[in-house]
Queue: 2 jobs
Job 1
Amino acid sequence: MRQPEKIHPIGLSIRGGSKVYPGTVALKDVDFDLHMGAVNVLVGENGAGKSTMMKVIAGVEQLTSGKLILDGQEVQFRSTEDAARHGIGIVFQELNLFPNMTVAENIFISREKTRLGIDIDMAAQRDMTRALMKRLEHDIDPDILVGDLKVGQQQIVEIAKSLAQDARILILDEPTSALSAAEVEILFRVIDDLRGSGVGIVYISHRLEELIRVGDYITVLRDGVITGAQSMEGVDIPWIVRHMIGQASKDFAKEIHHEYGPEIFRAEQITAPNRHGGFDVQDVSFSLRAGEILGIYGLMGAGRSELLECIIGDRRDYRGDLFVNGQRLTSRTVAGRIAKGIALIPEDRKSDGLIQILSIRENMTLSSLKTLTRGVHLSLKREAETVRDFIHRMTVKVASPEYEVSSLSGGNQQKVVISKALMTQPKILLMDEPSRGIDIGAKAEVFRVMRKLAAEGLGIIFVTSDLEEVMSLSDRIIVMSNGRISGEFTHGTATETALVEASAKGHVPDAPADPEPKDATG
Amino acid sequence: MSDSTIPTSAGQAASGSALLLLLKARTFIALILVLLFFSVFAPNFLSAANLVIMSKHVALNAFLAIGMTFVIVSGGIDLSVGSIVGLCGMVAGWLVLHGINPGFGWSIQFNTFEICLIVVTVGVAIGALNGFLITKLNVAPFIATLGTLYIARGAAMLSSDGRTFPNLGGNPEYGSDTFRWIGTGNILGIPVSIWMLVIVGVAAAYIARRTPLGRYIYAVGGNEKAAGLSGVRVTRIKFFVYMFSGFCAALVGIIIASQLVAAHPATGDTFELNAIAAAVLGGTSMSGGRGRIGGTIIGAFVIGVLSDGLVMMGVSAFWQTVIKGIVIIAAVVIDQAQQRVEARAALQAQAVLGK
């Protein structure tokens, strides 16, 4: 399907583009060509300038100096609407949809089809939405609320929104970070289709295998400078990594060999209902030994995060028993669970892991203030010492622990969340997608920390949808599908094929989000 | 207790940090400016007697604003405080005049301390009701406290059929003759209500800055979900802030009843708005997670000094209202500017580190 010999016309280019923010230079004199009818992949560590460059193309930001050339004409986009008029659509990593509105309303937001400019022509919008969905091979009802869709389907709605504006250039910023394997396949088919019809696609991702699979041209950015740009021929992962971080090794955590301790955690027949009368988690039992890393692999919506929510006590509507060191847990509050030695590093750092407007220090110690308190008096001195110690141990790069945590990069924010969990001196650490949205350097560091903690005798349960991650990090792997355990593997018996097969068991790819009637009880 | 005491970090541009300091200390600067202005233009403004009277006025609003600050920092709002003031005043008046009549032809009478204890319990109980509605029944804070605003006000009216309880002089036989002392007495030449404000203010500032409870209040207001997942007992924290707000309102009810030697059921009408204004003026963010007790108290003083000073200058009450509104809006606009400058400074310092 890739045709490197065919010349793809250049639809848009940047010449000598620089973007300066107060205090930082995000882009330094970059030359970028966007090929039409092809997938132009863009890769680089967090903060390398990928997003800035795309924001310039999509009209969110303007270049400080340099030219933007569209079809041979120099252009300037003052706003996203301006860029959209020129046929440029962008799907941001964080989706910009209105969960309280229907699919059709979302697709035509601010460009509603109207009669006489007043009355919204719902029927026309619905028909056009259906046509778009057909083109994207998705059977999404135009009248369903976007909030009721799965993340993968929401992404499709975003793409449809761009297509509805006749986008000739489509920018996808980490489109697969929240998608399951089946949904990724569908997205790739859509991309293929779009490429065939001459759309120029910019594809940003941290998943390198994906880039190699889907891309026709690659551009690598490092610190605002383009370090490599060529057609995808002959490009492999070491090549990308070399250009991204300037060294040839991809430093995944090396195994530190150690013995496992006794069983420290056991779950027995955990069952949690969902809103639609079915089950998020069904009959899940497993055990964990001290020093063991247990990987839970599965697709989005397989019930992995929900299982962790039950274990940490955020959900109380489940049945089944949990044991720490052989003792049954009686407390059903998060605080009670933390006191028993369980800590969670949530999947969504921004909304569940951190309190953005509080300082780095206040975020770090939030779970363990009790240990810094005598009577009611909180010792700010001891707090500052502990924070300094953890910043050092976790190598968090901070200018001052008093700054708001939102001023940190994704990787450093994740280290703050991990520090917060570790300060409670947990015996069992639950990590939900610990590498989501952080760059490759920070990822390797997080994995190293996990290995080290396991070697120190912590039991770690981590959830991921990244095959390579689960294979290289776990001592043992559980695969979940549709709320149940569909496979269990040791380090020796796990193969990628076996994991993928187990994760697809009983799973209907791209089923409608809400198959059961809402009023069903269960 | 000024809000200008946060240590500024190294690595900031000198001009930026000077601007930041200026912005952070803005409420304090505003207070000084207001004081300077009136001491020039209003005769007798700086006399000791006037300052004491003014402080007594300010104290009432400051109590409510302290309670309100905790509520707003936790991400809520408490509209019921004005009504709690009215109801608690009526409860105090009733107890001083009638005691409790269980219906057997005799009544239980209380001394001043017991009366205060009961009144405070009433205030805290209404706060607990707010907390219950908000946490257990999931009513939005605005609506829940709007409801209790009406309930408490109605109850206050019902207690006397809308009439005033007069002559709350108390009875020496029951030990309630000291009730008047709360509003009119002095210790070391300073009114009792000011001493109470100092105690409550210091306690609240201590809770906010140096106890886990305080930290949890900020955490809940900043991100309730993340706070809960970090082990913060969100429900308890919310109960606390509304109960504390009710406690502060009860104190104000007692002080007013004692000062006037009478309790009127309409007392405290729209006090909640002044309390919110003082908190916002002091830098409390309506979206939660940000605010300081010291700032709030200064904010209450700015509002109080402004209105008393304008009265002394003979400015019409209508103009006073307009000026108060302008001051509040200006405060919020400057607050936005401060947050932008602060965020930029942090990002710059972080950028210097190279991510």
Note: Residues 1-5, 248-254, 507-522 of chain A have pLDDT under 50 and may be disordered.
Job 2
Amino acid sequence: MTAIDCPGLAAPTRPRRTPRQRRDTRAAYAFVAPFLFLLLLFQYIPLAMMAKNAFMDYSLLNPDAAKFVGLLNFEDMLVFDDARESLAATFLFAFGVVAIVIPLGFVLALFLNSKLPARGIVRTIIMLPVVTSAVVVATMWNFLLDPSNGLVNGAVTAVGLPRQPFLTSPDQALVMIAVMTAWQQVGFAAILFLGGLQGVPKELAEAARIDGATAGQVLWNITIPLLSRTTLFVVVIMTVFSLQAFAPAFLMTDGGPQDSTNLIVYHIYKTAFVMQNAGYASALSVVLLVIVLGISLLQMWLLRARWNY
Amino acid sequence: MARFRKPVLLALVLALILLCFFAPFLWIVSNSFKPQLGIFSDVTPISWRTFLPMDPVWENYRSLFARTNILQALLNTAIVAAGQVALTLLLCAMAAYALTRIRFRGSQAVFVVILLTFLLPVEALLVPLYQVVSGLGLSNTLTGIMIPWIASPFGLFLLKQAFEELPRDLEDAARIDGAGHLRIFVSVILPNVKVPLLTLGLVTFLFSWNSFLWPLVIAQSPEVQVIQVAIAQQGSPTQLPNWGETFAGATVATLPLIVLFLLLQKYFTQGMAMSGIKG
């Protein structure tokens, strides 16, 4: 930070600087106080409560009757299958979303970064699902995927294939909600990739082309390696986002069939607010928090180096 | 030959993108203007009929507004979103001012305290947050829906960046004239960060309008329901006999955002790209 005083004024005001500094400090704390107060109340206090409640057995209907149970909630997580299955479904879901979003988002970004016509329209259209709420997207796809009257089955039968059960099949439900989430987020990924592409110096590609490299070689050997930071960034964002998905399980599958789409946030919601087992839900939340923090810290550690082009 | 093949390929790719991303929206909106039987009979075989209402009817919208609390929900959502945008801008701008334009003891510590919350996944705090907010007597209130998100670390970072880019000379003149921090903040700094404020305002509006899980747990009673919760309760294809009404609800819930997005696309996209820092 630079000094606030102009150099010319610094010398004569030096003796009076201390009261002024004190005034500045008072003003600064007055400016940040409302923000810090709400942050304490709605982030730090809940965080501390969650850490404590993970060792309690209680319900949200009567939280005062909480009983300390030590590590029982965490032991339950290991003994019963629900947590492991829910986490497995959530990771599979996140992996599916990332696997679709990264290549498609990258290709769309290449298109948006080119000089081809209709870029503006494509940019607008792929952003429509991004600004649409998860609830509306889930509702929309619920009907699109309806086995008897849905549009997707209309298209499937139009090309001569048999009707598919989609959300009522334990094999297809998780795949379908991953496809839906990827459909919603791919425009966002494309915008992030586009930002990275616009930072790639054009001279490099031009020099390679002059040396006789094909467009494919430039893409593979120059553009993609230069975008590794952006790619890691998009992977992490999409993973963290997917790990916290809730609306698809709540609106489309109720976590089923056979718990195949019992995403962790939906599992936490049901455990705390429906089954009224808030202690166990807190323990599950701690696990989710640790996983997400771990991913974020891993990202920071990977990006710490200065391989920034 | 190659010169001819390229535009054809391009047109095909464009048509595919249009089909994938736009057709579902078109299907929903056009079906909101059809009676139930029309929706079903137009699905197979797929034709232009599937995507266009040939005899548009307003019946779905009429029954949606007459039968459900959707109007109240829209109003609630507008109030929550407006309040959340205004207060987020105010609190984040004030905090960003202190952290960028004033040198004070402890500023590093304050920054770290804020930085740490940036990494917290909000959904993981659902249960304790519910206890805090209902403990304050704010469950089933519009205030309770918005208040946890006003101190937004993302908002602070966005504005902090913008404030840091402003030159020092800007406020030096005002300072020599004897202006205090409040006056410098209001009449020197704020007028110079209009675009970042607009960007943050739009992203906050989008976040608030679309939020679902938190309002679902904290504001269940019909008079404080927000639009996403109201839509979610309209049901699934098998439970609900009236598809058209659900589609009308989805259209009504989405239209304000789409219009806003189309008008201010540049700022939206910019804000979304920056919000990438936090998903």
Note: Chain A touches chain B through 103 residues (CB under 8 Å).
